[in-house]
Structures are given as C-alpha cells and as structure tokens.
C-alpha cells in the first residue's frame, strides 16, 4: 500500500521557537494532504487541508499565521508551528489523498511535539 | 461533527471474533462507510470500506445493513495486536475525514 512518512517523529522545543514538520508521500503523488492534531485521550481534529501549489484551507479556530503550511510539491507538505507555546504540545498527523476513486487516505506515523 | 455513533469501548477475548457496531442513520446515497483504526501513538490505519454491499479483505469484514443506517466491522480472530481505537467514518468524495470518538477495543488474553 501507499506509504506516508513524517519527520521528525518527535521533537522537543523551547517556548517561542518554531518547529517544522515534514509529511512525504513516498510512492505516490498527493495533490491534497491533510493535517490533524490530537491531544491526549482525544480524537483527531482536522487543522487544515493542503493543496499542492495553492494556499491551505484552515479549519475554524486554527490560526493560519501560527500554523504555516506549505505544499510545494506533489510529495511534500510541511507544517511549521511558529512561536510555539506549551499549549501547542500535541500529536500532529498528516494524511495524503491517494487520488484513487475509493477516497482512501494514507496516514503518516505522526509527530509528537513537546514545547517546554 | 461526526455523522456516526459508536460505543466508547469493548472487550474481546483473544482468538474470538470482535464485532464493532456503528450507527450512521443520516448517511446519504453517495456516501461510503470507512473504517480506520489507531494503535496507541501511531497514525490511523485504513481497514476496509463499503458502499452498500458487504465487503471482506485480509484484515476484516464489513457488514452493512440493507437500509445502510448501520454497519458492523468484524475482526474474525482478534489478537492482542488488534487492541486499538476503531473509527467508523462516513465519506463523500475526496474530503477530509471527520473523526468521532471511536470505539476503544481491548483484546484480552
């Protein structure tokens, strides 16, 4: 099946710094990728939809200037958490649309962000 | 909001079949039923999907009622590695997945 990778798998950063998370589709091209956030004991919450070559679409309540998304190629989308604060500590997960008629999405393994 | 309702948790003995129900009474004609699962601290994993016919693959079977208002995911011989949160999601087109709270399945030795 299709594989999606994320890097880094976990990161610890200090409050006020920025962190970039990469999401790559390894064996297929993804016109659309999605970014989710998951807090402990909660379900995944969609943050934004990332379309190659255009601006991301953010969900209500997600600050686009704080969570910068870039989807410059068909295999790479990046999420940058700017001026991170402890409340941004979470599990960030990306998924990629396979483009097949079945609408199946492939998820990355997630990135655990801890802001101290 | 999620368009599905699932029990919050279930237990299953190892080696037995795990039957996970899902209600999706407002599903429309062009919407699929998808099942994903999430093992602790990992990304979700696709399991199976269907429109109106029952489906089976190497992981599971999906039984959809004739009126399509509910479905059941069946893991025929549950193992300890099947312990996870299982999500039933209604999907229409290439849209983002809306995750509900899912069912936490605990497989017990």
Polypeptide structure, described:
The complex is a heterodimer of chains A (116) and B (109). Chain A is mainly β. Helix content of chain A is 0%, strand content 52%. In chain A, the strands form two sheets. In chain A, strands 2, 4, 5, 6, 9, 10 and 11 form a seven-stranded mixed β-sheet that branches. A four-stranded antiparallel β-sheet of chain A has the order 1-3-8-7, with no helix packed on it. Chain A is globular. The model of chain A has no long low-confidence stretch (mean pLDDT 92). Chain B has no helices and nine strands. In chain B, a hairpin with a 4-residue loop joins strand 5 (55-56) and strand 6. In chain B, strands 1-9-8-3-4 form a five-stranded mixed β-sheet, with no helix packed on it. Chain B has a four-stranded antiparallel β-sheet with strand order 2-7-6-5, with no helix packed on it. Chain B is mostly beta strands and 109 residues long. The chains are: A mainly beta (116), B mainly beta (109). Chains A and B meet through strand 4, strand 5, strand 9 and strand 10 of A and strand 3 and strand 4 of B.
What tags apply to this protein structure?
heterodimer; A: 116 residues; mainly beta; 7-stranded mixed beta sheet; 4-stranded antiparallel beta sheet; 11 strands; B: 109 residues; 5-stranded mixed beta sheet; 9 strands; globular
């Amino acid at each position: 099946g299709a594989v999606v990778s994320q890097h880094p798998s976990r990161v610890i950063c200090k409050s006020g710094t920025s962190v970039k998370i990469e999401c790559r589709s390894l064996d297929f091209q993804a016109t659309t990728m999605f970014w989710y956030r998951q807090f402990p004991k909660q379900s995944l919450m969609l943050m934004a939809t990332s379309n190659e070559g255009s601006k991301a679409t953010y969900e209500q309540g997600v600050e686009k200037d704080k969570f910068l998304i870039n989807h410059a190629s068909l295999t790479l989308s990046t999420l940058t958490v700017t001026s991170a604060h402890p409340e941004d500590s979470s599990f960030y997960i990306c998924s990629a649309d396979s483009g097949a008629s079945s609408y199946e999405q492939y998820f990355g393994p997630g990135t655990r962000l801890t802001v101290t | 909001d999620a368009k599905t309702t699932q029990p919050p948790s279930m237990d299953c003995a190892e080696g037995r079949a795990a039957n996970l129900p899902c209600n999706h009474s407002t599903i429309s004609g062009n919407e699929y039923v998808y099942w994903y699962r999430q093992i602790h601290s990992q990304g979700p994993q696709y399991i199976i999907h269907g429109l109106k016919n029952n489906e089976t693959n190497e992981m599971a079977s999906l039984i959809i009622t004739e009126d399509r208002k509910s479905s059941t995911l069946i893991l025929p011989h549950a193992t300890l590695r099947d312990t996870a949160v299982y999500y039933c999601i209604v999907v229409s087109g290439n849209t983002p997945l809306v995750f509900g709270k899912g069912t936490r399945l605990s497989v017990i030795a």
